[in-house]
Design brief:
Blueprint: H1 12-23, H2 27-39, H3 42-69, H4 76-84, H5 86-121, H6 128-148, H7 150-180, H8 201-212, H9 228-257, H10 260-265, H11 269-277, H12 285-313, E1 323-325, H13 332-336, H14 339-348, H15 351-379, H16 392-411, H17 413-424, H18 426-440, H19 454-463, E2 465-467
Antiparallel strand pairs: 1-2
Helix pairs in contact: 1-7, 1-9, 1-12, 2-3, 2-8, 3-8, 3-9, 3-15, 3-16, 4-5, 4-15, 5-6, 5-12, 5-14, 5-15, 5-17, 5-18, 6-12, 6-14, 7-9, 7-12, 8-15, 8-16, 15-16, 15-17, 16-17
């Protein structure tokens, strides 16, 4: 009875909630251990946290400009496609689907399960099988919600963003009170150079940047944003500044209560903080943290499904995944596609190994996307973006990203090599399928369904999905 397309339902408040809800998730509650372990001391870890925040602001400003220059949804994928071409964009898509996104979702899901169960088993650690079972149940709930309604997913994100800020406040306020009372013993000799190992610093940055990751989420849903030229830069700047301040105060609170050995030994830093500082909050904070992780899962599914949706529309992914449910107006096939890979990674993975595994690919392609902004400016000097950042911002951000990626080979060669292998494995797939299809207009493998393919047609009927009827970009 009406046209089938993705509606513009994301207002400024919802954009702000999407960014806050995606950034403030599991990272600030699990990454302090990884940052401290690889930076060596309290002082250097706080420097890393601030540097990661500043770097995130640079990246967010670059993506805000890209979002005003390129009017399609799709985030990293569409920016790389429009600026650097189809090969690097397909390699990103390949790595995103098989490594980056499932590993990232598995990390957040495992954090959700761990914090949800921690109060029931304290002071002992929760059993690993139970953590993984609860992690999967939480992920499946979010998957179902995103399949059901865009509006309700956005409303949940807004509500959980408030929960996230409350969770941070319950850590910051008690910590600041204790600091004001003179509890500064854990900050003695904060910059111990003997414990600093330079070749481990990239892993410290990976852990810190994982906590900030999410500043790019509005770029994935650009076509669904109300007044994107105004709302993208505004939402990005306000949300990143809010998170930087919150994260710095949260880490100072952690170190006010917990010593370095306590942080390194803790499987859930926020729970350890509450156990030592305010036992009356022992059952409240872990639940709030778990809900915070739940919001991050929701934001991740919401945005990544749009990447698959756009890639399918651009002809680099099976066309079934560019289809929308006829009544729900959700990209149902794209939402459901992550189900098997995330399930597998939750079952077999460990949080910190997974984090290093996907961080290499993620920051490689984010660096390429901001390199694409420089290329786009050079190729199209006549285009005047309504929002433009100084050239040194994308140049600095790109250099730091690519340098960190290169250095990480010395820090964790095994996991980084696996991530690199996943990226490189996309080359033969691109030349066997995508390049040949572009050249001849034919399909070469049954996997790469055509729109008239029998299996695609049957899946359309089963899922009740059709092609988008109008262009919104």
């Amino acid at each position: 009875e009406e046209a089938v397309f993705l509606r513009k339902k994301i207002t400024l408040v919802r954009a702000f909630s999407l960014l806050i809800g995606s950034m403030v998730g599991s990272g600030i509650f699990i990454s302090p251990k990884g940052v401290l372990k690889n930076s060596g001391s309290v002082g250097f870890s706080l420097v890393v946290w601030f540097a990661c925040g500043l770097l995130s602001m640079f990246g967010a400003l670059c993506y805000a400009e890209l979002g005003t220059r390129i009017t399609k949804s799709g985030g990293h994928y569409i920016y790389i496609l429009e600026t650097l071409g189809p090969l690097p964009s397909f390699l990103f898509l390949w790595a995103e689907f098989f490594a980056i996104r499932p590993a990232n979702s598995a990390v957040v899901s495992l954090a959700f399960g761990r914090y949800m169960l921690e109060p029931f088993f304290a002071p002992c650690a929760a059993p690993v099988p139970a953590v993984k079972l609860v992690s999967l149940l939480g992920y499946y709930m979010v998957l179902t919600l995103n399949s059901w309604s865009v509006t309700w997913s956005a409303r949940l994100q807004t509500a959980l963003s408030i929960v996230k800020l409350v969770a941070l406040a319950l850590i910051i306020v008690p910590g600041m009170m204790l600091l004001a009372q003179g509890h500064t013993e854990n900050f003695q000799d904060a910059f111990d150079r003997q414990s600093l190992v330079l070749d481990k610093l990239p892993l410290a940055f990976y852990a810190g940047m994982f906590a900030y990751s999410g500043w790019f989420q509005t770029s994935f849903v650009r076509e669904e944003l109300v007044r994107p030229e105004r709302n993208i830069p505004l939402a990005v700047i306000v949300s990143v500044i809010t998170v930087i301040v919150g994260y710095m105060l949260t880490n100072v609170s952690y170190y006010t209560v917990l010593g370095t050995q306590d942080v390194l030994a803790s499987p859930a830093v926020a729970v350890s903080f509450v156990q030592q500082a305010f036992k009356s909050l022992i059952s409240v904070v872990p639940v709030l943290v778990a809900l915070s992780c739940f919001g991050t899962m929701n934001g991740g599914i919401f945005t990544f499904s749009r990447t698959l949706f756009v890639a399918s529309r651009e002809g680099q992914w099976p066309p079934l995944f560019s289809m929308i449910h006829i009544r729900r107006h959700t990209p149902l096939p794209a939402v459901m596609l992550m189900f098997p890979l995330v399930t597998a990674m939750v079952c077999i993975g460990d949080i910190y190994h997974l984090m290093n595994f996907f961080s290499f690919s993620r920051w490689l392609f984010i660096g390429l996307a901001t390199l694409g902004l420089i290329v786009h400016r050079h190729r199209h000097p006549e285009l005047r973006s309504p929002f433009q950042v100084p050239l040194f911002v994308p140049v600095s951000f790109t250099i730091i990203c690519l340098f960190t990626v290169a250095m990480s080979f010395y820090s964790d060669p095994v996991n980084i090599s696996i991530g690199c292998t996943v990226v490189l494995s996309g080359f033969p797939v691109y030349y066997l399928i995508i390049h040949r299809q572009i050249s001849s207009g034919l399909n070469f493998l049954p996997f790469f369904f055509s729109r008239s393919d029998y299996l695609t047609h049957k899946l359309q009927l089963l899922l009740e999905v059709v092609q988008q009827e109008i262009k919104t970009y």
